[in-house]
Amino acid sequence: MPKAQSNKGLFQFYPHNLIWLGLSVLAIILDQWTKWIASTHLNYADPVPVLPFLNWTLLHNYGAAFSFLSDAGGWQHYLFTGLAGIVSIIFVFWLMRMPKHNIILPAAIALILGGALGNLIDRMTLGYVVDFIHVYYQNHHFPAFNIADSAITLGTILLLIDTFFLEKKRIQRAEVKHD
Q1: Closest Cα to residue 52, out of 136, 131, 133?
Q2: pLDDT, tens digit, for every residue of 82-131?
Q3: Which of 30, 98, 113, 149 lies in disulfide reach of 91, CB 3.0 to 4.6 Å?
Q4: Cα 34 from Cα 165, distance rounded (Å)
Q5: How far apart are alpha carbons 179 and 164 in whole angstroms?
Q6: Could you give phi then psi for residue 38, rounded to 5 degrees?
Q7: How far is CA 76 from the centre of its chain?
Q8: Are the beta carbons of 48 and 55 closer than 8 angstroms?
Q9: Catalytic site residues?
Q10: Residues 123-168: pLDDT tens digits?
Q11: Using one digit for the tens of pLDDT, what is the confidence trace for 43-90?
């Protein structure tokens, strides 16, 4: 007798995925806490040397990643706020529907979600994103960033690893189960 297929529906969430939402919340808390420290202890645009390649430098980013569109006249604030909100909702639904055996993919989504929401909080409450980590080498400077940006970057790297190296294995396992 064949197994009955269950239709879990769009709103079927798995309680085990709450741990991944916890990772998102942790990323948000660390991001907001470090931005608060930077905002209260650093002078704007005044670098504080930490290592030969690292300064703490408080900057305000009115644009997107690496200050893209920061001087576009203000419309970008609404675009980035709306986009981050929509993507965050989609990521929460995606995250809560993850099968239990996945680890890398939900970690990636959780980090991207936490980073996006960390920067969204800044954008909605301040009108800009607080950046303070400034990496450089001699006269080559990487744009300032924050913990949220780091979470998004790490999440994206994990997402790429999952996509290019782990997805094929999941498909093969699913095919074996259905045979």
Answers
A1: 136
A2: 888 898 999 999 999 888 888 999 999 999 999 999 999 998 999 899 99
A3: 113
A4: 33
A5: 24
A6: -60, -45
A7: 19
A8: yes
A9: 131, 149
A10: 899 989 999 999 999 999 999 999 999 999 999 999 999 999 988 8
A11: 999 999 999 999 999 999 987 655 555 555 566 667 778 888 898 999
DSSP class of 64: S
The residues with which 58 forms a beta bridge, in sequence order, are: 44
Q: Can you give the pTM of this predicted structure?
A: 0.85
Cβ atoms within 10 A of the Cβ of 172, count?
10
One-letter identity of residue 26: L
Give the Cα separation of 119 and 5 in Å (integer).
41
Closest among 4, 167, 153 to 66, alpha carbons compared: 153
Counting every residue written for the chain, the total comes to 179
Q: Supply the pLDDT for residue 132.
A: 98
- Neighbouring residues of 70: CB distance < 8 A, sequence distance ≥ 6: 61, 62, 63, 76
- Sign, Cα dihedral of 59, 80, 85, 19: negative
Please give the DSSP secondary-structure letter assigned to residue 175: H
Largest CA distance in the chain: 72
Asked whether the beta carbons of 142 and 30 are under 8 A apart, the reply is no
Query: What is the amino acid identity at position 21?
Result: L
